[in-house]
């Protein structure tokens, strides 16, 4: 006769779950025991910190669109998981979190490590239940998984530790085989309205978000047929290859000057599968018409007024547009955007030959671009790693790129790399982290060592919170509390059982990277001493210029010298 934990594992495996990230402990041990008994079906990946387990599950779900599972004890372990689960929530990733709890007879007594987890996780979860009987455990797990898929979010189950070990005679049949998320029917009346708007537009532009993930080829055919420039949001980077001739990169502080001006000049913006929040970088309200296509109806009209709002699957709706009499634009606006983008690309190209030590980040990313396998997976952390990668790391059709998009949590890259190595064992995984971000989760480098994951982990070591430096300066504030004590991350990697290299210039980095690609059973860490620059905004806007001026004035007053500035040529290019 099986017990509750056995039935729980049966449900997980029926839904295709073959591994779980977590740490064992007293209030979750009966569930972990069930996983041990069926370890031929489901692998337990032991992390060193519960936050890493949750961040790994979030990244895996974002990369694969499949449910990922993490677990921890109740109380402190559960609290640690919140950050990673919020990352999953905000990036709409299906994740199941299994939380331990004190035994049922001790609930509400203020027992050791007893925390009201259903209340604690109420905001993060689309499904949040406390299991009270073994008779309904398997059924509740099944419902939690369905809900995580249906609502693209986090399902949380709090399980008192006595319940999974109880026996039960009845079996439960999971609903995995019959489950299917229904898509809305394409509304042809709205499609026809959209076609009319597109056929009248003189300066159309497309903004693509993560909703195009499974329809990149259709979107590519759309921009080529209609002769339209396009921008991809950062989490959608690479869904259409970055080197496509119609691409203007990203828009915003981390974007290109070409994208900024195209948005300001457009008379029609086609927003597909996006909830892009930085409205200041969209066309001024009233200047451009807007067609919006989104599978999530609450995102329609949310950031920008829609003239045509279409609730539907991005690929199906755009396919309908292509089959409904859409006429190609005259291509003049596209040509002018391509001319601006060619100028931008020439500026980017100049930077790849920067000399000196410490290493210029532009040179480092150029080396990665040139050497990364065609199916590489890039796990990018928050900070200047994000900034540099957005401009200097083009993503190809068969490559993948993952970040903490909406939460923007530091320390996301290493957990994402661990998840990527787990689900894509035959692909090269490269994580790129700032030294501040890496230090938050570095203990789990040893997790990659333990499971023989040959990921390449690059630490941009500038001994500074460089992106915060830029934020403070652009806000007109003096830099404060941003300097970091130096650490030899290469020696740390070796102490953890991995391979470590320290580099300070282009030649050393190229050699270290070449060696790193050859590692097949151990993770590599490249401790790269880089300049503490942050890339200038694609277009420096008035408020940023005022902030920099205020910062410079304060600096001159306090230090009696001018602050270190980017080359005047770069300032002029990005301002005028």
TrEMBL record:
<feature type="domain" description="Thiamine pyrophosphate enzyme central">
    <location>
        <begin position="191"/>
        <end position="321"/>
    </location>
</feature>
<dbReference type="InterPro" id="IPR047211">
    <property type="entry name" value="POXB-like"/>
</dbReference>
<dbReference type="InterPro" id="IPR012001">
    <property type="entry name" value="Thiamin_PyroP_enz_TPP-bd_dom"/>
</dbReference>
<dbReference type="InterPro" id="IPR029061">
    <property type="entry name" value="THDP-binding"/>
</dbReference>
<feature type="domain" description="Thiamine pyrophosphate enzyme TPP-binding">
    <location>
        <begin position="381"/>
        <end position="527"/>
    </location>
</feature>
<comment type="similarity">
    <text>Belongs to the TPP enzyme family.</text>
</comment>
<dbReference type="InterPro" id="IPR000399">
    <property type="entry name" value="TPP-bd_CS"/>
</dbReference>
<feature type="domain" description="Thiamine pyrophosphate enzyme N-terminal TPP-binding">
    <location>
        <begin position="3"/>
        <end position="117"/>
    </location>
</feature>
<dbReference type="Pfam" id="PF00205">
    <property type="entry name" value="TPP_enzyme_M"/>
</dbReference>
<dbReference type="InterPro" id="IPR047212">
    <property type="entry name" value="TPP_POXB-like"/>
</dbReference>
<dbReference type="Pfam" id="PF02775">
    <property type="entry name" value="TPP_enzyme_C"/>
</dbReference>
<keyword id="KW-0670">Pyruvate</keyword>
<dbReference type="InterPro" id="IPR029035">
    <property type="entry name" value="DHS-like_NAD/FAD-binding_dom"/>
</dbReference>
<dbReference type="Pfam" id="PF02776">
    <property type="entry name" value="TPP_enzyme_N"/>
</dbReference>
<dbReference type="InterPro" id="IPR047210">
    <property type="entry name" value="TPP_PYR_POXB-like"/>
</dbReference>
<dbReference type="InterPro" id="IPR011766">
    <property type="entry name" value="TPP_enzyme_TPP-bd"/>
</dbReference>
<dbReference type="InterPro" id="IPR012000">
    <property type="entry name" value="Thiamin_PyroP_enz_cen_dom"/>
</dbReference>
<protein>
    <submittedName>
        <fullName>Pyruvate oxidase</fullName>
    </submittedName>
</protein>
<keyword id="KW-0786">Thiamine pyrophosphate</keyword>
